Amino acid sequence: MLIKSTSIPGCLELLVPVCKDKRGTFVKIFHDHSFKEKDLETNFPEEYYSFSHQRVLRGLHFQRPPAHCVKLVSCLFGEIFDVVVDLRKGSPTFLRHETFLLSAAKANLLCIPTGLAHGFYVQSDSAIVLYKVSTLYSPTHDTGILWNSAGIPWPDTSPIISERDLSFSSLKNFKTPFTFKKETL
Q1: Which residue among 65, 90, 140, 149 is buried most deeply as judged by most CB within 10 Å?
Q2: Mind telling me the catalytic residues?
Q3: For the segment 26-75, what is each residue's pLDDT rounded down to a tens digit?
């Protein structure tokens, strides 16, 4: 596994080996020993996947403390424009975003630390996105920031988006509960 640092501390792009032959591909997206060896999160008590159509935008989501979590995100089918926003007060990249292209063809993953909002936009006809999370889902702690309030260069100015995601407060009006801790990287 190749680990690529990003501009946001603690946010990593993981490139895993892809085995290809005439039948197709085989990809191991998680291996406990390898993750522990690289000091990456290995406790993922919940796992989800979403199926979304082209032009769907999901995000920008996170859970507030004490239900905050590390996420391991991969695109199992299709291609997505993936985004994280650093919400950790004291971080050198506080309130900045970074974008990634995640796809089944690239078989890359994103390891997202606690304190980052996450969202994605479906660029292919459809996409299946897998999320492994380090804490159990807590509806009372689940929230987000408004998708178009963080200066992100989304590929679409009028995506298909849920009413819930449209109701989030803007980044400008958001009071962060997260603090950057260098020692946790």
Answers
A1: 149
A2: 61, 131
A3: 999 999 999 999 999 999 999 999 999 999 999 999 999 999 999 999 99
pTM over 0.85: yes
Superfamily of domain 2-184: Jelly Rolls (2.60.120.10)
Assess contact for 74 and 150: CB atoms under 8 A. Answer: no
pLDDT digits (tens, 9 = 90+) for 97-130: 999 999 999 999 999 999 999 999 999 999 999 9
The Cα 38–Cα 47 span in angstroms is 21
Query: Which runs of E-coded beta strand occur in 16-173?
Result: 18-21, 24-27, 46-53, 57-63, 71-77, 79-86, 88-89, 97-103, 108-112, 116-122, 126-133, 142-144
Note if the bond before 139 is cis, omega within 30 degrees.
no
Kindly state the tokens that stand for 20.
């290809």
Contact (CB, 8 A) for 11 and 184: no
